[in-house]
Amino acid sequence: MGDPTGEPGSSMHGVTGREQSFAFSVASPIVHTDKTAKFDLPVDTEHKATVFKLFSFSKPHMRTFHLSWISFSTCFVSTFAAAPLVPIIRENLNLTKQDIGNAGVASVSGSIFSRLVMGAVCDLLGPRYGCAFLVMLSAPTVFSMSFVSGAAGFITVRFMIGFCLATFVSCQYWMSTMFNSQIIGLVNGTAAGWGNMGGGITQLLMPVVYEIIRRAGASAFTAWRIAFFVPGWLHIIMGILVLTLGQDLPDGNRAALEKAGEVAKDKFGKIMWYAVTNYRTWIFVLLYGYSMGVELSTDNVIAEYFFDRFHLKLHTAGLIAACFGMANFFARPAGGWASDFSAKYFGMRGRLWTLWIIQTAGGLFCVWLGRANTLVTAVVAMVLFSLGAQAACGATFAIVPFVSRRALGIISGLTGAGGNFGSGLTQLLFFSTNQFTTEEGLTWMGVMIVGCTLPVAFIHFPQWGSMFLPPSKDPVKSTEEHYYASEWTEQEKQKNMHQGSLRFAENAKSEGGRRVRSAATPPDSTPNNV
Amino acid sequence: MMAKDHTLYQDLTCTQFFHQKSIFLLPKFPNSTMTIHTLLFVSLLIFSFIESSRGGNKDRLFTELQNLLEVTAKPVQDVIVLEAGKDMVTIKWKLKSSGKVDADATFKTIQVKLCYAPISQVDRPWRKTHNELFKDKTCPHEIVSKPYDKTPQSLDWTVDLDIPTGTYFVRAYGIDGDGQEVAYGQSSDEGRTKNLFSVQAISGGHVSLDIASILFSVFSVVSLLVFFVKEKKKAKLEQRE
Predict the structure, then answer these.
(1) Of A367, A360, A430, A371, residue with least CA distance to A395
(2) Where are the beta strands (DSSP E) in B97-228?
(3) Phi-psi region of B103 (alpha: psi -120 to 50; beta: other; left: phi over 0)
(4) What is the structure's pLDDT at B24?
(5) Which of A137, A146, A220 sits opposite B210 (nearest CB)?
(6) Which of A1, A200, A431, B62 is the most exposed place for a label (fewest CB within 10 A)?
(7) How large is the ipTM?
């Protein structure tokens, strides 16, 4: 319900983070502020906030933001809660390296499917209930860690906990009901980045909780089980907060959702076709698997790596591992910013180069991490690697909205799923077998990142060019209108169904770079309907 | 206009001050942030260099140690598998009679450790045997560490609660005054296949833990459903009005 037109995939609008990365507020005269509405923040005619005030908890908009990102972060905490405790768990459950690796793969696989279902759930129940249902129904999976007695149980429970990462969808969806589409990019990008931080918070939280419980007298093999109660309680607390403090829409709960008979204006099959047949979609699926994917893989292996390789205490290893995930706080938005900055001067070609440079740099630092023999060099390499990978995530979603206007939601969803798939693949290849030690696995993962980032060079937009090729010289094909209108058939164009795409094309002309911007585009023209 | 000139003048004097007072051969940076960044980076490099050059004593090898001690480890009760936290092992160690009489002159401390047999090391690289002593992970669990006594020693040791399930033997290291291992002895043979004993770890689970987790899980699901039903009822009532 984020988009009043109710298009399939509209729930993913705003996921992309490119829209107005700079913008904290909407300056466009096109958006009419509703001055009669009594909210703490200025709102538009749909009562969506037009200003993003980070440190406010005002009802309902900013409150939604904080409830949303914190519940998403909680799910990251519980999904990766086992990772820093693996040195203890592996002894209790008598796990082999394969078991640990398989559990890591399982933890990221579940959400590939749950994220796809979550969109439908949000359409059906609304994002508030979608989030609350997922968070509270996955609390039992977290608590069931206390029953686990062997490898099979461990892998199963990690798989089940992993389903809750679908809160990503409810988080972004909920935000798009509360924030105007002109600032939704920054809002959603911040929420996604801060949510991902949970993967870092857990690396520090769980060992500290474990230590406290141990000092209180519990044996090692009991203490880690008790420690899992903490993420479980967080699920319950956040679920209750979301239910009691949250609301579906700026004006209240569910009233507008009772709009029966809202016909979907676009057909799912058609959108799917345009998403799947656009070759750029698949390049981004691959790319995101090697930015977000390697981030998730590293969340799973890094604490154990530092514990074993450098003979650190559990909480010291956890502290270092936490630095990896916590860098998301600024690294992901910084990637989006870098992309926007390069677009100002070089347009889309600048964005592509920025993405390639950042992601390749991340890959090289990952290689360095694998080859680092001393603690200090390993930490430095790890931090630089985290900045590269996470900024690349931000830079990826700075380009994705330009791939397609009609199929944006599905492409965003596929890209996100690609991230989880890439994570499962790298864990399976490099961290689950005896063929590689963990340091060798990290090195080869870095090499694979560099290799799998090369396809960025193949992303070519006829109207803007690619990394090595200039825009097409053909007077028809080199227009933005042609590219975005080509997703509609002649029949659909006759029905004027493509008007949204044309408006988007007009606003996307700024991706031509500096000479285009200075030539024709007015300074405050921005995409206002993604 | 006046204010602008004033600040410019201030900037110039600050720079001059810095140049006059700086006794270090620092490059002239346009602002202090760059200075701080460079200092941090340089100190990082220096520390890395120091760390990496601290090779030295780390390279002592296990194969350099002499097998001077005779160690035996037998379960107190004749059971197939020892239970962690309950069953006991009698560990005895003394200097080998076949060696020189004063071979143990350098021993200051004796450290007795519980070690993994090869079968428990399969597919578990965190228990791997390395020749370099500082890297070796074969014997992570310490049983006892005490000043060296020339007389034969015996100890009845209860298997700790945090010992994992596996197959083990016992090794004793003779350590000199500098904390360096100089000799060893183990209860098994060189290939570590004989005289092993098995331990079954505690599960770590408790009934109270299971009950608590069930209670909280039920609470989570039930409270969600209660909320949902209550709100639906309220919405229905409101619709009727």
Answers:
(1) A360
(2) 109-116, 141-147, 153-158, 166-175, 181-186, 197-200
(3) alpha
(4) 46
(5) A146
(6) B62
(7) 0.81
